[in-house]
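User: I'll paste a sequence; please echo it back and then give the predicted structure.

Assistant: Echoing your sequence first, then the prediction.
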Amino acid sequence: MAGHDALLQLELNEERYVSLLTKLIGESKHLQNCPPKFVPEEDRSVGHVLDALKPYLKENGGPLTVEHPTYVPKRGNCIIKYQPEGAKGIVSFVGSHLDVVPANPETWERNPFELTREGDKLYGRGTTDCLGHVALITELFIQLAEKKINLNTNVVAVFIASEENSTIVDVGVDMLLKDGKLDELKNGPVYWVDSADSQPCMGTAAAIMWRLRAEGHLFHSGLPHKGINSMELLQESMKYIQEHFYKEFPPHEKEELYQFATPSTMKPTQVNSAEVSVNQLPPWSEMCGDIRMTPFYKVDEVMSKIQSWVTELNETKFAALPKRGPVSKYFITGPDGKEICGKVVLKYEGEPFKGIACNLESDGHKMLRDSTEKVLGDVKPYSITGSLPLVGDLQEAGFDIQVCGFGHSSVYHGDNEYCSVSAMGNGLKILACILYGFSVKHSS
C-alpha cells in the first residue's frame, strides 16, 4: 500500500486509456441524444466501464465498489467509490456523461463513431464531450486501486446519463439527487468534470428555451389591408422584447470578476411559418431561441418579466410596435364588422438550466486553482455562457460545485471533435493533485 505522496507520481497509462476510449467511441452511434430520433442507451458505455473496473472491485479482492443506478431501461448511471480505511473527508468527480450529441458522418472528415488517432489527437464523437472524461476518471480509479493508495479522503465518481437533452426526464443526475445517491457528496468539494481547456471554469449561464408564436389573419398579399401579416407581427414583437430584455438585464457588475466573455443574451435561432403560397399573408409564424443568463440574475424573475411584456403587447393591441408601411396592421375589422386582432404567445420549452457562480473562496476552488497551476505552470480561470444541467440546483442545495474539464472547447458539439492525449494526461495529474491536497488536509 502506497502513501498519498504516490498521487504526485501518477501518469496516464496511455495504452489503457486509448483502449477504453476506443470502446466507448465505438458505441457513440448508439449514445446520440436527440429524441425522438435518437434515444441513447447509456448502458453501452457503463458496460465498458464496468469491464475495465472488474478486476479491482471488492468482490474480486480489490478496493473499489460500483453502483449502477438505473431509472429507465438501458439508460443507467454509474457510481464508483474508493474508500480507504479511516478516511475522513470526501472528494467527488461528477458530471462526466455517458451520452453524446448527434454527429453527421457526411460532414466529418473521419468516421465520428470510431476512434481515430492522429499523433496526439484522438478523434470521434464524445472524445471532448464527454466520453474522454469518462475514460480518464475510470483510469484514475484503476490507478488508485492498483497502487492501493492510502488516502485520508474518500473518492467518488458519478457518471451520468441523459446530459445532452432533457426532453426525457427522470433518467440521470436529477433522479440521482432525488434518490439520495448524491447526499454524501455535500461533505466535500464536488468537481463537475464536463468543461474544457484544462483551466478552472468559475461560472456558467442559465439556459431558458423559448418559443414565440404570432397569429395573424390569412389573406391575399395583393390586398394586405384585409389581412394581418403574422411574420411582420412576429418580427416586430421579437425586436420589442429584445430591446426591453437588454435594458432590464444589462451586463452585471460581477461578470468582470468572473471573467464572463459575454453578458446575458436573448436571441432567436430558428424560424417557421404556415405553409402558404408566396402571395398569401401567413396566418401564423414562430421563432424559437434561447436565453443565456449569467448566474447573477434569477431565472424565475427573468421568465416572469418577459411574459409580462408579451401580455402588455396583446392587451394594448401592439400600440408600441411600428408598422411596416401604410397598410400594415395588427388588428382589422372583418367582413362581419367584428374586430380581428393579432396575437403573440410565449411558451417556455422544458425546464430551464440554472447557471452557477462557483464559490471562489471555498477550499474546493482554491485546490483546483493550485493544482492546475502546479501541473500546467499557470492558472487562467474563466467563465462561459454555456450551460450545465443541475449545477445551480446542486449549489442551492448546499454542494460546493467546482467546474473543470480537459477537452477542447473549439470542437465542442462540432464536426471532427477530438481530445488530446497530452491534455488528458495533464488532467489526470490535476485530479490526482487535488486528491493529494485534500488527503494532506485531512491528515492534520
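Residues 421-443 form the longest helix (23 residues). The radius of gyration is 26 Å.
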